[in-house]
Write a structure and sequence with these properties.
mainly beta
Length: about 210
Amino acid sequence: MATFRLQGSRVLAVDMTGDAVKAKNGSMVAYDGQMAFKKMTGGGEGIRGMVTRRVTGEQMTVMEVKGHGTCWFADRATEINLVHLQGEKLYVEASNLLCTDAGLRTGTSFTGLRGATQGNGLFTTTVEGTGQAAIVSDGPAVVLRVSRQYPLTVDPGAYIAHQGNVQQSFQSGVTFRTFMGEGGGEAFQIRFEGDGLVYVQPSERATIAGDV
């Protein structure tokens, strides 16, 4: 299995000994040794995945990198966070997924209103299995614990990913910008309940259904 390690906070180094990884297309910045690069369809899920992603609007262009040596990846100088999965499922925005072990399965999952408020479609990307994944964030990500005693409410523009036995629901609400008179439309929030982790970034995406 490939070894993921960070060099600084914005560059991912992956050591491979004949292994393969799936990475965001165009994210390779350097490599040594012998590497082969192949563009994959449907986010690495083949023709069925390509059709699913076109229907759902969850876009992800992926390449497979395989070889012997070290390959370095980065994406617009964003911060990189490593996630270790042990037979778990990670839910992550496609634009925030940088690289995964080739053995991890990717797919799409229905998310509901959050996608509609962001203009990212009603689905999000899933990564499942045992291995490592690297996700990116605009600024250093914060990992927040959700427990049955302490549910968590998140601004959809700051949400990156979540994992664990977590249920999400969507509710209308207000934000600090609304209180300051800067809100331009209806605001939504994501509520997480259960037991797991939620990744958020200290920067909000632009939305098309009003400021959130």
